[in-house]
Sequence to fold (183 residues):
Amino acid sequence: MWLIVGLGNPGIRYAKTRHNIGFVALEEFKGKYGLDFKEKKDYRICIGSIENNEIVLLEPLTFMNRSGTAVQKIVDKYNIPAEKIIVVHDDLDLETGRLKIRKKGSSGGHKGIESIIQFIGSRDFIRIKIGIGRDPFIPTEDYVLSKFRKDELPLMKEAVKKAVDSIYSVITEGVEKAMNRVN
Fold:
């Protein structure tokens, strides 16, 4: 069983912000494969299968810096090893619209990733990073909660499509092939 986590913040206020690109990617994935979320107290969840692989889609609703609480609940409930977790999230250090897949590693300062590492006790999960760029004139916490500029929207639409394809590729072909294709 695979766990695919999209990171973001709950609520209309954050819906189209840079920090919510993980939610956007999961929404696109579920739509493409005809899956539906059920809302629980701390998360939205969807259980299905892709090419005979059982999957769980998860959107934590605990705000970014507490994402690990929902992830830990699902990991414990379904006994999912860290190597079978894919986390889709924003990355300030990648140019807007660029994708990168990593097999494991540190949080890189991302509070959602830090929370997941803390709660599941492992850094050995796969990350699909979607670049949101950086603006040196805007404080980081304000920038990640800002909306994309009009000229960035086509880049982000394409990045989300590539992220959806990357999730599928990791599950059906393995992380190495997906990394070779994307990185």
